[in-house]
Specification:
By secondary structure, the chain is α/β, with parallel strands linked by helices. It is built from 9 helices and 8 strands.
Length: about 230
């Protein structure tokens, strides 16, 4: 789970944002994943691929740098990736996020899948059923109308969800939903509750290898009680 990719390491440090990784570190991640692409358990696959196991690359929020920095590196290595977009971020005109034109361009790149991330990035588990439905349905429809592509995947804003949110997500047409819970996904099991592994601003290639090898899975166990309260 990535968020933003910034032009240099110093920017990430200055922003003190663990979710803004430098282009240098991200490039090293792409190089590693590309080299591992022939491995059965390290092949990079799309999140909704129900027939293969491997590593899925996802981005939350819809930052502009997903198009300008991350996408060229991933496309050059023929690695598929998922981008979960919050329409309100696009509509806001905030220059940190993709514009409508940029989002359409991103959606047309090879290997790219666009998914939803709530319409306005609210904690869905705090809303009433009608509000949850509106958030999930309107984000899906808005993205479909703009990109002219079917939207069947999403990630929960803030990682906040519960059984009601999952039921509504399924009812409006989502087939897969990514969480912020730490862990690996067993294909075909709970497709609306897919765990992911956080990538942070100081994660170099060695750290990425460690996370993929399970050496950081203790974080998932540590956070599990907190994540259960979110659900």
């Amino acid at each position: 789970m990535y968020h933003s990719v910034v032009k240099n390491t110093e920017s990430a440090f200055q922003k003190s944002d663990i979710y803004s990784i430098s282009e240098t570190y991200f490039n090293s991640h792409v190089d590693y994943l590309a080299r591992q692409s022939n491995s059965a358990d390290r092949k990079v696959v799309s999140l909704e691929d129900s027939s293969s196991s491997g590593v899925s690359v996802t981005f939350d929020d819809g930052y502009k740098d997903t198009l300008t920095i991350a996408a060229p590196l991933l496309c050059k290595s023929n690695l598929p990736f998922h981008v979960f977009v919050t329409p309100a971020n696009v509509i806001s005109g905030d220059n940190r996020y993709l514009s409508e034109t940029e989002l359409v361009s991103l959606s047309k790149l090879p290997g790219v899948t666009i998914g939803a991330h709530g319409f306005s990035h609210q904690h869905l588990n705090t809303l009433q059923a009608t509000e949850i439905t509106d958030e999930l349905k309107s984000s899906k429809e808005w993205l479909e109308n703009l990109t002219q592509r079917k939207i069947t995947t999403m990630s929960y804003p803030h990682g906040a969800f519960n059984s009601q949110v999952q039921e509504i997500a399924a009812s409006v047409g989502y087939l897969y939903a990514a969480t912020s819970s730490w862990g690996c996904y067993q294909v075909g099991i709970k497709p609306l509750e897919i765990p992911r592994i956080d990538v942070w601003n100081l994660d170099n290639q060695t750290t990425l290898k460690q996370k993929l090898n399970g050496q950081w899975d203790w974080i998932g166990k540590l956070l599990s009680p907190l994540q259960e309260t979110i659900k």
